[in-house]
Design brief:
- This protein folds into 3 domains: 194 residues, Alpha-D-Glucose-1,6-Bisphosphate, Chain A, domain 3, CATH 3.40.120.10; 241 residues, Alpha-D-Glucose-1,6-Bisphosphate, subunit A, domain 3 (Alpha-D-Glucose-1,6-Bisphosphate, Chain A, domain 3); 141 residues, Alpha-D-phosphohexomutase, C-terminal domain (TATA-Binding Protein), CATH 3.30.310.50.
- Helix content is 33%, strand content 23%.
- The strands form 6 sheets. It has an 8-stranded mixed sheet with strand order 1-9-10-5-4-6-7-3, sandwiched between helices. A 6-stranded antiparallel sheet has the order 21-24-25-26-20-27.
- The protein binds 6-O-phosphono-alpha-D-glucopyranose and zinc ion.
- 6-O-phosphono-alpha-D-glucopyranose binds next to loops.
- It is found in: Cytoplasm.
- Its EC number is 5.4.2.2.
- Keywords: Carbohydrate metabolism, Cytoplasm, Glucose metabolism, Isomerase, Magnesium, Metal-binding, Phosphoprotein.
- Monomer.
Length: 583
């Protein structure tokens, strides 16, 4: 048993350590500055109640991006010095964000211990590598991201910090081997427990889904499947779940070896960045005559996001959550006794609203950011939720869950084909979506992203959109000049949310223009970028008439897109004639 001592290090504050929507995200080179990570970690320890530090069990892991391995060792040494009792580390520092949430909520250590929180080392869907992004966020005992009251405290601590504690003589722990290493410090024992979290994660998935039914589908010769981890942490789970447990072919896994730089790619599961999968699914530009698989899905770096594709068919995330909610009770054992409620983020399309109304379910519209769902779930008010930003999940944990979403879709497809796997024609992803539109109507939807825009220009553009809201008649005059074929704006505001559980109010959560026919334009600044500003424009139009739900989405939305770009003076403010990404 190694002995260690505790050193008090003098430090001075760094500017800008304010955690955003999902923690602190900066370039790796920023994190590599002496004391930078240490200041943030100590500020976090100082923001937590003492009993969640002293004697506590804390998880430290992430998506495996560049600098994670160094960060794990630094945080471990600081945890020991701050009298944390033990840290739990994922094998090779890998643990998906949903798996961290599951581990906090479910795992019981060999000595009966339970975790009270986690440092998650990820910048989610941002690229990784020595010149790219690193990130860190803290999750609490419920398995969800720290609430604003805690992140505000962390930030305020970073502005006054003058010292941190570290056990410099604690040897580095070999995180490539499973096992517990024990040490002894001035205040008692300290353990580092390295384990493979896929075991705990799969155990949880088995309590939610009917693995036998999914296996039947995945092993049926009629069904073909493809999963792309984009070299993120989902790769550490994919083989175990899809191949070993569910019988998928090993060749159905794409980019499933986790890499520190995600193979040089952008680990964001959308039609722009998941290029290889998009090609394979027949949605790309190549004219390959290989028949695409029936089902395809991708994950982001930390495996909380998902993209769902059918053969030559894209499922929008807004439709995906609505379809999962509409089919959950019949298809997924965990929901067999009914849904407590459903929720979506404000910019997500209203497809879920229609399902909620039809099925008489409690419904909530919350600001962007998963933590708002967590509150509803802790209060037993919400079972399924989703966001347009490729996030879908349920109250089994307090993060969105990319692999859960895939298993949910596979469950629905298995259910729709349960008497049919020997028959002629498979009910496909496309069939399921078109059937949904025919029943509930279709929300045509697209999002335009302008990445890395000058921050000042982005602010001015947003300010102009807010100031225009004071005169809707002027707005409507302008719109008529741009396009005479869109309906009138009947209301416009900045979205504000009062949390029904804790009463807290979140203001300035996105600028909305609401049209008479139910169409919406929403403008927001991203809270997850690391350089400049990203402007997001969300464009949505509802079509109830089932004979008109089959149009190409960009065609159907062209008039509204035109209005959105001219109304906001996008090109004037940003100098951009086209968005960086369209989803
Ligand atoms: C993270 C959060 C999501 C949120 C998204 C928004 O992924 O976990 O809950 O929807 O950020 O990102 P944005 O860049 O639009 O602020
Ligand atoms: Zn993510």
């Amino acid at each position: 048993m190694g002995l260690f001592t505790v050193t008090k290090k003098a430090t001075t504050p760094f500017e800008g350590q304010k955690p955003g929507t999902s923690g602190l995200r900066k370039k790796v080179t920023v994190f590599q500055q002496p004391h930078y990570l240490q200041n943030f970690v100590q500020s976090t320890f100082n923001a937590l109640p003492a009993d969640q530090v002293k004697g506590a069990t804390i998880v430290v892991s992430g998506d495996g991006r560049y600098f994670s391995k160094d960060a794990v060792q630094i945080i471990t040494k600081m945890a020991a010095a701050n009298e944390v009792r033990r840290v739990w580390v994922g094998l090779n520092s890998l643990m998906s964000t949903p798996a961290v949430s599951a581990v906090i909520r479910e795992r019981i250590g060999a000595d009966g211990s339970k975790a009270t929180g986690a440092f998650i080392l990820t910048a989610s869907h941002n690229p990784g590598g020595p010149t790219e992004d690193f990130g860190i966020k803290y999750n609490m005992g419920n398995g969800g991201p720290a609430p604003e009251s805690v992140t505000d405290k962390i930030f305020s601590n970073t502005t006054t910090i003058s010292e941190y504690l570290i056990s410099e003589d604690l040897p580095d722990v070999d995180i490539s081997v499973v096992g517990v290493t024990s040490f002894s410090g001035p205040e008692g024992p300290f353990d580092v427990d390295v384990f493979d979290s896929s075991v705990d994660y799969i155990k949880l998935m088995k309590t939610i889904f009917d693995f036998e039914a999914i296996k039947k589908l995945l092993t049926s010769p009629k069904f073909t499947f493809c999963y792309d981890a984009l070299h993120g942490v989902a790769g550490a789970y994919a083989k175990h779940i899809f191949v070993e447990e569910l019988g998928a072919d090993e060749g159905s896994l794409l980019n499933c070896v986790p890499k520190e730089d995600f193979g040089g790619g952008h680990p964001d599961p959308n039609l722009t960045y998941a290029k290889e999968l998009v090609e394979r699914m027949g949605l790309g530009k190549s004219s390959s005559n290989v028949e695409p698989p029936e089902f395809g899905a991708a994950a982001d770096g930390d495996a909380d996001r998902n993209m769902i594709l059918g053969k030559r068919f894209f499922v929008t995330p807004s439709d995906s959550v609505a379809i999962i909610a509409a089919n959950a009770v019949q298809s997924i054992p965990y929901f067999a006794s009914g849904l407590k409620g459903v929720a979506r983020s404000m910019p997500t399309s209203a497809a879920l609203d229609v399902v909620a109304k039809n099925l008489n379910l409690k419904f909530f519209e919350v600001p962007t950011g998963w933590k708002f769902f967590g509150n509803l779930m802790d209060a037993g008010m919400c079972s399924i939720c989703g966001e347009e930003s490729f996030g879908t999940g349920s109250d089994h944990i307090r993060e969105k869950d990319g692999i859960w979403a895939v298993l949910a879709w596979l469950s629905i497809i298995a259910f729709k084909n349960k008497d049919n796997l020997g028959g002629d024609k498979l009910v496909t992803v496309e069939d399921i979506v078109r059937q949904h539109w025919a029943t509930y109507g279709r929300h045509y939807y697209t999002r335009y992203d302008y990445e890395n825009v000058d921050a000042g220009a982005a602010k001015e553009l947003m300010a102009n959109l807010v100031s225009m809201q004071s005169s809707l008649s002027d707005v409507n005059k302008l719109i008529k000049e741009i396009r005479s074929d869109v309906s009138e704006v009947v209301a416009a505001d900045e979205f504000e949310y009062k949390d029904p559980v804790d009463g807290s109010v979140s203001k300035h959560q996105g600028i909305r223009y609401l049209f008479g026919d139910g169409s919406r334009l929403v403008f927001r600044l991203s809270g997850t970028g690391s350089v400049g500003a990203t402007i997001r424009v969300y464009i949505e139009q509802y079509e109830k008439d089932s004979s008109k739900t089959g149009r190409d989405s960009q065609d159907a939305l062209a008039p509204l897109v035109d209005v959105a770009l001219k109304l906001s003076k996008m090109q004037e403010y940003t100098g951009r004639s086209a968005p960086t990404v369209i989803t």
